Amino acid sequence: MIRTMAQPNPSPFADEGAMLDAVARFQPGVRKRYESRTKLDRAFAYAYLRYAARLLGRSALDVRTRLLVMTGQFTMSRRHARLRETVIAAIAEKLDLREILEVILQCAIYGGESIVDEPLEIMADELGKAGVLDDVSRRGLQPGLRAPGRDDERRRWHPEDAADPRADRLVEKYGPGVSIALVLRPLHTLNNAEFLEGLDEDFTQAFYDLGYDDMYGRLVLDHRTRLLCMVGNTLAIGEIVQTRHHMRTAIRQGATPREVLEVLLQSVLVVGHPNVVPERIKDLVAIVKEEGASF
Q1: 85 found inside a domain
Q2: 210 within domain boundaries
Q3: Long-range contacts of range 127-135, CB-CB < 8 Å, 24 or more positions apart?
């Protein structure tokens, strides 16, 4: 009896060319990689091309958000060749490149300041090639200027935080970083700030100045988008506690549970399946239930 190779399962795309086009929108280097992989193992090359085309072609996230999430994940995981492709794709899609830059800058919070060195060089190089470096630089933020939209922070504090006498004291002592922290981390910030204060007041000041006032308070990205990116960022380095926290906060800041789920599903292309399926998805299901939301 002659055995024949099983044929690949039907793809939602008509052919390899269509799949390559779909993935190349996000990963311009896919054609070269596919050619190289095919020379070694055509089945593997086809399987991952089909998988990437399926995941990146879904409608739960728009192209902008997908590319922003990928920017953060490739920065955090130090996959600089893939980051360069993502920047090239963002330029081709005519996205606001200040937002792409902002995602890279925000990675300094979770990866340390040095993690952005090579990504910033890549960004400057590709912006220069595209002739838009001066425009992006000109629209950059200036030190000491408060971002528009920060004036109503107190109105967005949780009622229990607003009624707590520690809130006014800590904001007066440590400044507006505590205020935006109260927006982003309700029912947590006051305890955290008081804990840090009891150990080292100078560090507490520096922590809230940089992390919340100088960085999270920039508002180049809306909180919903930034937090979806942070979900991807923390997944990229296996930081489970912060992944859970950012999934919850993203929902509280306007992301739908389906959008958060889509970040998780897209992330398997970057971080692999064990980091996402099924435990992080189970975490999200529990968070959605606790927040009284639904998919």
Answers
A1: no
A2: yes
A3: 127/87, 127/91, 127/97, 130/91, 132/91, 132/97
